[in-house]
Hints:
Layout: H1 4-11, E1 17-19, E2 22-25, E3 39-42, E4 47-50, E5 56-58, H2 59-62, H3 74-89, E6 98-99, H4 109-114, E7 118-119, E8 133-139, E9 145-152, E10 161-164, E11 183-187, H5 190-198, E12 204-206, H6 211-215, H7 217-226, E13 231-234, H8 240-255, E14 259-262, H9 276-291
Parallel strand pairs: 11-12, 11-13, 13-14
Antiparallel strand pairs: 1-2, 2-3, 3-4, 4-5, 6-7, 8-9, 9-10
Helix pairs in contact: 1-3
Bound molecules: zinc ion (ZN).
Zinc ion (ZN) binds at residues 27, 29, 32, 34, 38-39, 50, 52-53, 55.
Amino acid sequence: MTEYVADLLKDKSIPFNVSGRDYLVKCLNPEHDDSNPSMRVDKTTGIFHCFACGYKGDLFKYFGILSNHTFIRVAKLKEKLAKLKIDRDGLTIPPVAIPYVRSFRGISQQTLERFEAFYLPGESKELKGFEDRIIFPIKDITGKIIAFQGRHTMSAGQPKYLFYPGGVQIFPFPAKLERGTKSIVLVEGIFDMLNCHDKGLTNAVCTFGTNSLEKETKNKLFPYKLQGVEKVFIMFDGDEAGRIAAKKIKPLVEQLELECEIITLEDDQDPGELSAEYIHSIRDYINNGNNS
Ligand SMILES: [Zn+2]
């Protein structure tokens, strides 16, 4: 007999007792304050029925899962459940993680601490392949961790960047701005963003590459508009790809009724390598523009 129903109940942290062919749980009807479990859930089909209030349904549908579960492989379902759990609760930093308390490639310890950089002492079952990496929790606007990004600590280490979970839809980061921020500076990678923050440009936001932003510009930038942003600066890498992407994205930003300006870097310069002096001059330029 399959245990899909029991797995689902466990995954949703719903306590249950076995009662014949059913599980006995507290009623799922939000309007029924069920102090004694009065809802029966069929062990195999997941069909539930509350004998006190009459609420019935299908447990899988209730949690947004295909009801035709008989044919779903256990692994697939578990993956789905894990994803639902992540959607609801976010990810957690593995308990074995060790905070990264030194500087890395010109980024100060303070900045790395602020972004909660950590590393793993060895292999981890939660974050496979993330050993030898400096890892950052990527948070959404509510502070929930939606992904991890790990950069190999060796220059030649491959792949240079790794995401967990794979294929997750990532919004620009940081999602939440300091109160009163009127502009943002879009940069391509997380280390571009970290370098800018480190040198005082604290409204830099990384887009995790330019491709995904081109497709979802409005969705991805709208949350900043809601936070009061009026102007977007695009400061992508000083190469052809960066320049082309900036030109493509500018009109998309303007469709959101945000002002947009491209900051073009010299050839082969990228924001991850800019000096403090250079970044201060950009910050001054941005601030003066906003005051006048
Ligand atoms: Zn009920």
